[in-house]
Automatic annotation (TrEMBL):
Residue ranges occupied by any Methyltransferase domain in the UniProt entry: 132-270
InterPro entries named among the record's database cross-references: Methyltranfer_dom, METTL25, SAM-dependent_MTases_sf
Pfam families: Methyltransf_32
Protein name (record): Methyltransferase domain-containing protein
Top-level lineage group: Eukaryota
């Protein structure tokens, strides 16, 4: 069973509407068509619907706008904001904006945690875990073991096993399971081995392997040898980037792998399809036939969770208050405008990045000089007087830039739903495979809570 948004009963109809929505001009603009850093260069604010920008201009503090937008896409099960919109403006949101926010909600895969078994982990396992990891391992381990019992599986392969919290818990808790933990990082595997050793887990019960997961045949041979002809379940707790895609291909092609449970994350590491990577995103024929493409910005957006952001302090409601986050966004946009006007090119190998240090946001000249030093731009190319002039010219745009960024990240659930449906269709169109997607974790604890599970029927 596939958990679809309530208006839909057909995954085909849902996928059609989902892909159409992300292809609309507005969504295309805010999810990569115009990067927020280029907002001043490309007049991004003026490209938004005028009735929206006119309404937003009435707000005393742009953070009220941001909170209203975030609250506008909350699911019913999510706790509402205690901040809300400025009372005098609360009833005046343009209908077109309300409809757009409702559309996002109607197209996002449900996130209300499905009820199911959960374990109470012993302290010897939880001592090294944070609260989030405890909740995830408690739920994931219980689900995996239930599948293994139902399917008669005694071998579990944990791919992208990291520090080994899941693999060690499975091996420690369940005497009927053998576990193979695979990770591409030597240091991660060494940490996992130390954890397993502290639990006194025998090596014949839990084996660790350092191997980069790239879909190559050598790893297939190693997994097959380890299984020794027994059925296996392939699992990944927050499999980073396109690791989930490799897992789907292993599941579909390796005969010993009977079941799959994969929870994705770090979508910004997904590799799009290209001549050099023909197996990149999208991986399903359904989305490829629709020419679906997600920009680096869109993939990064899918990693966000604005519904879980901390609430801003608006006690000084009668003052125009700034925040370090919105100021950093504004300063970056102004800097890009300066570079553009001066024909200074710094993006030859991708969008430049540098660390922001304490004190960099004291003023735009301070921010710009720090950035220029990191990027190799000489101070003789841009004078202090010019930097001061640019700050005066564009400082009123802080709220606009902050709202543009918020609009962008509002699409996170929809973009993540696109990625999830691509993976669903990749398996659903193959013979002898049953596949579903549902929310396994508490969304407030783990925003990346969609699990793709599949079983072979032949």
């Amino acid at each position: 069973m596939l958990d679809l948004p309530s208006p839909y009963n057909s995954p085909e109809e849902y996928t059609e509407d989902l892909c159409d929505f992300i292809d609309t001009p507005l969504v295309s603009q805010i999810t990569g068509g115009i990067h927020v850093n280029d907002a001043l260069i490309r007049d991004a604010w003026q490209r938004l619907p005028e009735e929206w920008t006119s309404w937003w201009s009435l707000f005393h503090d742009h953070r009220h706008v941001q909170q209203d937008l975030i609250d506008g896409i909350r699911d019913k099960f999510e706790q509402g904001s205690d901040i809300g919109t400025e009372p005098a403006l609360a009833e005046k949101r343009p209908q077109s904006l309300s409809s757009w926010l409702a559309k996002i909600g109607s197209l996002a895969l449900p996130r209300n945690q499905r009820q199911g078994p959960v374990l109470t982990l012993p302290e010897i396992l939880t001592a090294r875990m944070n609260t989030k990891k405890i909740a995830e391992v408690s739920k994931a381990a219980a689900y995996i073991h239930a599948v293994c019992q139902r399917r008669g599986i005694a071998h579990v392969i944990d791919m992208g096993s990291g520090q080994g919290y899941l693999s060690s818990s499975l091996a420690y808790l369940f005497s009927d399971l053998k576990v193979l933990a695979i990770d591409g990082s030597q240091s991660q595997v060494e940490g996992a081995q130390l954890f397993a050793a502290s639990l006194k887990i025998p090596k014949d019960k839990l084996e660790h392997m350092v191997h980069w997961v790239d879909g190559s045949p050598p790893l297939v041979a190693k997994m097959t040898d380890w299984s020794n002809g027994q059925k296996c379940m392939l699992v990944g707790l927050h499999a980073c980037g396109n690791l989930s895609e490799h897992m789907l291909r292993y599941f579909a092609t390796v005969s010993c792998i009977d079941s799959l449970a994969a929870i994705g994350c770090c979508y910004n590491h997904i590799v799009p399809a290209s001549s050099s990577c023909p197996e990149g995103f999208p991986i399903s024929s359904v989305l490829r036939n629709k020419n679906v493409a997600l920009s680096p910005t869109a993939l990064m957006i899918a990693c966000q969770a604005p519904n879980n952001w901390g609430k801003p302090n608006l006690e000084k409601a009668n003052e125009r208050v700034t925040s370090a986050f919105s100021k950093r966004r504004l300063y970056r946009a102004i800097l890009e405008k300066v570079f553009f006007d001066k024909d200074i090119r710094i993006h030859e190998g991708g969008r430049a990045a540098w660390g922001i240090r304490k004190g960099d946001l004291v003023s735009f000249p301070k921010f710009a000089n720090r950035a220029m030093g990191c990027l190799g731009v000489g101070s003789e190319e841009i004078t202090i007087e010019e930097l001061v002039m640019y700050e005066k010219r564009y400082k009123h745009c802080e709220g606009q830039i902050a709202i543009l960024w918020t609009l962008s990240v509002l699409c996170w659930k929809v973009v993540e739903s696109v990625i999830a449906m691509d993976r669903y269709w990749f398996l659903a169109h193959q013979d002898g495979i049953e596949v579903e997607i549902f929310p396994i974790f508490d969304f407030k604890v783990s925003p990346r809570n969609l699990i793709l599970v599949a079983e072979k029927t032949v």
